[in-house]
Structure formats: C-alpha cells, structure tokens
Amino acid sequence: MKQFGLVVLTLLVSLTIGEAAVAAESAVPEPFQRFDDNSNYAINYDDLTALLKTVVVDVGRSNRRVVKPAADVTGTRMKTKIKKTANEGNRFYFETFKDDEAAQKFLRDIQVSLEQLPSEAPLEYFSRDEQLAYWLNLYNVTVLNEIIAVYPKNSLKKYFRGKKSIFEKELLTVSGVSLSLHDIQFTILKQNYDNDPLIIYGLYQGIIGGPNIRKTAYTGADVYRALKNNASEFVNSNRGTYARDEKTFRASSLYDRNSAYFPKFQSDLSKHLLQYLEGRERSALETTNKIKTNIDDWELTDLGGSHQRVGGSFATSRAALLDSVKSTTPMDGGGVMGATAAYGSATMASKGRHLSRIEPELLAVLHELDEKRKAENLRNASVTIGDVDDTSAETASDEEENK
After folding, report:
1. How far apart are CA 144 and CA 141, in angstroms?
2. Are the CB atoms for 148 and 108 separated by under 8 Å?
3. Partner of 61 at 20 to 30 A CA spacing, among 10, 86, 146, 363?
C-alpha cells in the first residue's frame, strides 16, 4: 500500500512538473500566439519612416578607428577621456523634442496608434514577418518616448536596471494585455521566433553601446534583411566586439543582458558572432578560448546635447561624430539637413501624416473574420479561414445554419 501511494505521489509530482513546463512554454499571451503565414496583409508605417528619415543621422559603418583626444582645454587640468565607441552608432535628434510639445505629441501619437492596431486588426491574421516588424516598431517608439521624458540625461544606465528600469514597467496595453518592454523582448519575441538572437539587433536601446536605430521603420517585407544589416554593423564595431589579446575576446554587455538568447553562452555566442565578424577580429575569435562581455557605452545616442562641457569647450567626441556623418537628409526647398540644423515639429508633421495603417476595405474583412472566429470559439469549434472573396458567402451560410 505504501508503495502504491509512493507511485501515485510520483505520478502527481511528474504531472505537476509537466504542467509547469507546458505553462512556461505557453507564456506568450493568447492574442499573440498565432500567425497566418499565407497572409499578404501589410501594416503601413509611412508616418514613422517619415519621422525617422527626418531625425536620425546615419554615421555609417565603423572603421574601428579610435578618436584622438584633443589638446589640453584652456582653463582646466581635466583630461578628456575618449572611448573607442565615441564616434560610432546612428544618432537621434533628441534635441528637437526637448522643448517642443507638438513634436513630443507627434511621437506619442504614433505609439498610441501602434498600440491600438491589434484591437482593430488582430495580429493572428498577419504573417510572422509582419508581426515581427510590428513588435520591433512598437518597442522602439516606446523606448524613444521614454527617453524623451527624461532627456537630457548623460547616461541611461540607471534607467536600464533596478526600480527605475524602463524595460520592466508595464508601459503598453495591446489587445487588452498589459506589457512591459521586457515582455516583448523575452516572452513574445523570444518564444515566437525560436530564440533567434538576430531579434536583439532590432531592439533599439537608446545608448551608443546598443544596436542602431535605423532611418526607416521595419516592415514585414524586409525585416530580416534589416536585422542582418544591423547585426553586421554592430558586431563589426568597437561597441560590439574588440580583440584585446590572444586569450580574451571582448564583446558587448548587450550579449550578457540577452543571455537568454544564448543558452550555452560561450559556445552559442561565439558561433553567432562568427556569422558576422570580419577581418582581424574574426581571426582573433577563432583562436581565443574566452569571450568577456564587458564593452559598455551607456551614453545617449543624441547628437551632443547631453555631453558635459569640460572647461570652456565641448568634448571632442561630438566634433569627431559630426566629421564621421556619411549621409544627410534633403530639406524642403533644397539643400541638406546638416548636423546642426534645427528640424522642428512643423517639418515632421508635414512629412509624417498619420495614415490608416490598414486599408479600410481590409479592416472590414478582418473585422468580419474576427467576429466569425469568436462565434466559432463560443461553440468550442475551430474555424478555417478561406479566401477573402468567399468570406461573405461563408458568413451568410453560417447564419442560415444557425437560425
């Protein structure tokens, strides 16, 4: 009898552990679990792209050169220490938003629009790629709005960790589900995209030591091409990797913060980096026996407004950055937007009008499909969505059967 009881107890424990494992695997909230990879439906991000083209400065690929410190600054004995990462990473015109309420509202409205989209057009009717672009854009716009709220801060490190972490707060409500930025990064994206570390390069962090912010929004049509470009740029920069000596290969602390994407950390990270590394660093990683993830740069990716003054002049990292800019944005009426041009909310508004993200006709179809799915779910049945052209006929047929 005791042995039988032990067997029953063992079975119960095993079932409990099994249920916990299933629960852990299905932690993605129900509205975000499904895809339709036969879907050709696309989400419109023209307003976000217009904004990014206006306020993002593309500084080009890193050449791994270290910025030389300037001559001693008059009136001070302080020395300016220049990081290896000082002139790397695309920059965002946070300065434009600092005292411009209209510009701030414009960006907040884009976030609200993205946040509300799945309530109008459920994500399950979109492909995996289209959903990935959606989550990356929503995440990045939210990060921008959170940084603008505390700008101008010189370092964002304290906003990454602890009680004030912007990534732990439930900042968003999507399809009735409260979400933090970490929920998007480590639950929805990690599980829905098979733990693919390529995802982390699409998540803008607001710091020089993180992946680039791009001049265009992510779209389902080219999201993986854009992510691979971001990965290659970051890995082959001083803020991503650096060969210190023959025994130790240095990599960004970004990888440590995303260790969940690298279960066997050292071997998985090495394999991942070798997919993108070029030149001397690639050879160094192939011969090293240890990766140390201690490259940090917590400074904001603004154009220089958050940099402290030393003595009577700016630290030279800003000048080095401006010299390194590889592309500029055309201005209305001719000319180009230089590094010091003021580009306010009026220009943004004229370039980035809020558009319907889903065509009205498609929105009506998606609404009809969703109502049908909900009705079928109430009857504990599954539904197969056919061609859009047959939707009205199918719905009418269902109504006749239910009379």
Report:
1. 5
2. no
3. 146
- CA dist., res. 151 & res. 147, Å (int): 6
Q: Can you tell me the distance from the alpha carbon of 154 to that of 302, in angstroms, rounded to the nearest whole number?
A: 10
Question: Residue 174: phi, psi to the nearest 5?
Answer: -125, 125
Looking at residues 319-346, what average pLDDT do you find?
38
Tell me how long the chain is: 403
Residue 397, H or E segment: helix 391-401
Q: How far is residue 141's CA from residue 108's CA, in Å, rounded to a whole number?
A: 8
**Bond from prior residue into 118 cis (ω within 30 degrees of 0):** no
Q: Which secondary structure element, helix H or strand E, spans residue 91, and what is its range?
A: strand 91-92
Q: How far is it, in rounded angstroms, from Cα 90 to Cα 326? A: 10
| Structure tokens belonging to residue 42 | 């696309």
**SS3 at position 296:** coil
Residue 298, amino acid: W
Contacts of 278 (CB under 8 A, 6+ apart): 236
How far is residue 294's CA from residue 239's CA, in Å, rounded to a whole number?
A: 10
Greatest mean pLDDT among 23-27, 151-155, 249-253 lies in 249-253
Tokens, residue 132: 């990935």
Give the residue from 354, 351, 393, 355 showing the smallest Cα distance to 372: 393
State how far the Cα of 107 lies from the Cα of 145, in Å rounded to an integer: 7
C-alpha–C-alpha distance, residues 350 and 338, integer Å: 19
Q: Which residues of 106-126 are buried (b: 16+ CB within 10 A; e: fewer)?
A: bbbebbebbbebbeebbbbbb
Distance of CA 275 to the CA centre of its chain: 21
Strands 241-243 and 177-180: unpaired
3-state secondary structure of 295: strand
Domain positions in the chain: 1-27, 34-239+297-358, 359-403
| pTM confidence score | 0.76
| Residue 139: pLDDT over 90 | yes
Tokens of 17: 């552990």
Which three-class secondary structure state does DSSP give residue 280? helix
